[in-house]
């Protein structure tokens, strides 16, 4: 059957395991083909190019944005990418060819970036558009590097492998991303070919402009939407589990097994992404099932995400959350009975491009929870101008998720589990469909809360 598969950066860095556990596992001859692999950059490379995804530490992009010299960082990048190349020599990578490819590629990118920097320095054009183009160029380097190396290794293993480079580096045609994908696959005989595809895809709309660091999953989703495979698969370095094994211990959690796209969205909302929410929508709408697999456990079926799945018995499927949130409480005694206070607050959030993950209201106050990284002083100033008192507090959120968990006593059972561990609930909530029960607590009690809830739900 035709499959479209995605390999994440951490898995890509373990190419030997990827080849053994994904490419070759229980497959020979023609079974190797009719598969499309969308690959991320090797682990850490995009962080060097743009910024560290977790810490925010600046990469090459930020030197361009600050009008600083970026030539030395690019030369250092070439050295680092060649060091990565050496790791795969034993797998059959042609080092001379791979080193020459990445050197030529980065040097060409440098020419494009020099032109952008000169235009930016002139002050005649929009800074935002130029910097966005710089991010696109830099992002493309990582996936072009990993896809080239992977293809070279597989070809040297005598596997009929096609490199599908969607970066459009030397292609000046004004394709949308969908048009580029359609053009790239039009002459490939999929039943006799294994395709390695760059996770970055160039398009007139700018994939990073809309999706930023989630772009490789969007490329994966768009390819699946075009080719309509029997199944879409994401290979990660871990299972989609009932709780984070790093918090509760591997022995205290299991792979989820089955869930639906609604739960996948709930997971993404608290940062535990099975798939980027904007990438999951085309799959969901098209009725394409998504499987999340562990690269290092190839015989395990993983977790299947479908549009229709509802668990046949009542249970909590996932316990998750995050400790990187802020609660903004807006108080004003004139709110009670006043139509439009909520709208006024939401308009301020919209104007400052800040999204929220939780909201609770009372007669004279509205509490809104946002990601700490999205804190905006101008937003707070606006709220303080319009309302009597604005309070900001660090919080954590723990969640119970499930496709069929609406049962009497669940809320009391979970609240009691927190209470028995001396964890104070600052706020709580759930929508009518009851697929996500949320508790807000102090950040320092986050790990304890996850452990307590996981134990209580067994």
Automatic annotation (TrEMBL):
Record-listed E.C. numbers: 2.7.2.4
Family of the protein in this entry: Belongs to the aspartokinase family.
Domain Aspartate/glutamate/uridylate kinase span(s) in chain numbering: 1-294
A GO term, aspect molecular function: ATP binding
SUPFAM superfamilies documented for this protein: ACT-like (SSF55021), Carbamate kinase-like (SSF53633)
Pfam families associated with the record: AA_kinase (PF00696)
EC top class, as a word: transferase
Keyword entries, A-Z: ATP-binding, Kinase, Nucleotide-binding, Transferase
Gene Ontology cellular component terms for the protein in this record: cytosol
Keyword Acetylation carried by entry: no
Catalyzed reactions: L-aspartate + ATP = 4-phospho-L-aspartate + ADP
GO biological process, one term: lysine biosynthetic process via diaminopimelate
Organism of derivation: Pedobacter cryoconitis
The protein, known as: aspartate kinase
InterPro entries documented for this protein: AceGlu_kinase-like_sf, ACT-like_dom_sf, Asp/Glu/Uridylate_kinase
């Amino acid at each position: 059957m035709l499959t479209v598969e995605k390999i994440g950066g951490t898995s890509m860095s373990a190419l030997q395991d990827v080849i053994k556990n994904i490419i070759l596992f229980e497959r020979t001859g023609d079974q190797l083909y009719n598969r499309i692999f969308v690959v991320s950059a090797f682990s850490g490379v995009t962080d060097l190019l743009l910024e560290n995804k977790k810490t925010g530490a600046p990469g090459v992009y930020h030197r361009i944005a600050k009008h600083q010299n970026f030539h030395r960082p690019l030369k250092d990048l070439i050295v680092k990418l060649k060091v990565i190349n050496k790791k795969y020599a034993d797998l059959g990578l042609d080092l001379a060819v791979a080193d020459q490819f990445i050197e030529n590629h980065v040097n060409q990118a440098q020419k494009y970036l020099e032109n952008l920097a000169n235009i930016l320095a002139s002050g005649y054009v929009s800074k935002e558009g130029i910097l966005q183009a710089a991010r696109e160029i830099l992002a493309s380097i990582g996936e072009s590097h990993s896809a080239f190396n992977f293809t070279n290794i597989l070809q040297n293993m005598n596997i009929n492998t096609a490199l599908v480079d969607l970066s459009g580096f030397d292609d000046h045609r004004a394709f949308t991303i969908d048009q580029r994908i359609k053009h790239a696959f039009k002459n490939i005989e999929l039943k006799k070919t294994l395709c390695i595809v760059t996770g970055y895809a160039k398009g007139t709309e700018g994939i990073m402009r809309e999706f930023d660091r989630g772009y490789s999953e969007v490329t994966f989703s768009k390819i699946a939407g075009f080719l309509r495979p029997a199944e879409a698969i994401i290979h990660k370095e871990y299972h989609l589990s009932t709780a984070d094994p790093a918090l509760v211990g591997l022995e205290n959690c299991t792979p989820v097994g089955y869930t639906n796209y609604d739960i996948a969205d709930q997971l993404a909302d608290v940062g535990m992404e099975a798939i980027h929410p904007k990438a999951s929508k085309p799959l969901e709408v098209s009725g394409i099932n998504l499987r999340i697999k562990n690269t290092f456990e190839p015989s395990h079926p993983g977790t299947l995400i479908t549009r229709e799945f509802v668990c046949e018995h009542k249970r909590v499927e996932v316990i998750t959350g995050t400790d990187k949130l802020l609660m903004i409480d807006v108080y004003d005694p004139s709110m009670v009975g006043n139509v439009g206070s909520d709208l006024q607050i939401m308009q301020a959030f919209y104007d400052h491009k800040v999204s929220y993950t939780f909201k609770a209201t009372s007669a004279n106050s509205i509490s809104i929870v946002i990601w700490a990284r999205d804190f905006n002083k101008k937003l707070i100033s606006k709220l303080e101008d319009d309302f009597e008192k604005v309070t900001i507090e660090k919080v954590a959120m723990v969640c119970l998720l499930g496709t069929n968990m609406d049962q009497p006593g669940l809320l009391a059972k979970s609240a009691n589990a927190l209470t028995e561990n001396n964890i104070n609930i600052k706020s709580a909530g759930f929508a009518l469909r009851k697929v996500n029960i949320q508790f807000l607590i102090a950040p320092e009690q986050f790990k304890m809360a996850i452990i307590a809830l996981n134990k209580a739900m067994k």
